[in-house]
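hey
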């Protein structure tokens, strides 16, 4: 069977980790080989770039530096991990991908969608996710959950307004990419979300 590229998106505290875990459990049960990875990150160099992006520092990146660092990490990740895995017939399960750039750098930071789309084209050529689970949650709830986890990174320290803009951008992306987007109500219990995700995957990809 051909490798599939599945991404998981949502604001902080939406439950991406639980979602990733339930997909991994299903793929293992269905005897499907997969690679589980994340962005920014997924390779040694890309993880170093991730730290640069998330660290709270006295010289924070301006919006364009942030955007270019994200695509630099992505180029490394795509060429070293994603493409080789898909070429081997493995599924790639990725915690965030370019939709996060449209949501955070586009919606949150106000960078032009057209610029992000240009970088997407240069970095990815035709590579796009086959399916994207978007866990939708109000930023009030999400941030409250994220705060309980401890130290906040540079993004988590943003104001509520930033996350409202991120969420609006995600909802626009879901509308625009109905063929691959699955919007999940992340207010529901973890068990219910996990069950919903598994049912959708089983149905869409005829898993056993
Ligand atoms: P997370 O992996 O814990 O969700 O943290 C990654 C952070 O990076 C999160 O706050 C969103 C942010 N991010 C962007 O701003 N743009 C991107 O393209 C990606 C992949 C992540």
């Amino acid at each position: 069977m051909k490798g599939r590229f599945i991404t998981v998106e949502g604001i902080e505290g939406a439950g991406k980790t639980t979602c990733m875990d339930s997909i991994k459990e299903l793929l293992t049960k269905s005897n499907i080989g997969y690679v589980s990875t994340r962005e920014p990150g997924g390779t040694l160099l890309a993880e170093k770039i991730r730290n640069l992006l998330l660290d709270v520092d006295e010289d924070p990146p301006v919006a364009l530096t942030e955007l270019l660092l994200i695509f630099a990490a992505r180029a490394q990740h795509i060429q070293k991990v994603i493409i080789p895995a898909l070429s081997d017939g493995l599924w790639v399960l990725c915690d965030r991908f370019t939709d996060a750039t449209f949501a955070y750098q586009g919606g949150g930071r106000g960078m032009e969608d057209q610029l992000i789309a240009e970088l997407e084209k240069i970095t990815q050529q035709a590579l796009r996710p086959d399916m994207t689970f978007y866990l939708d949650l109000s930023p009030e709830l999400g941030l409250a959950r994220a705060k309980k986890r401890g130290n906040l990174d540079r993004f988590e320290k943003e104001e509520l307004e930033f996350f409202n803009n991120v969420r609006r951008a995600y909802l626009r992306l879901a509308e625009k990419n109905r063929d691959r987007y699955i919007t999940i109500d992340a207010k529901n219990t973890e068990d219910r979300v996990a069950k919903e995700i598994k049912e959708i995957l089983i149905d869409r990809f005829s898993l056993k």
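The pocket of thymidine-5'-phosphate is lined by residues 12, 38-40, 70, 95-96, 100-101, 104-105, 155 (CB under 6 Å). The chain has one domain: 5-205.
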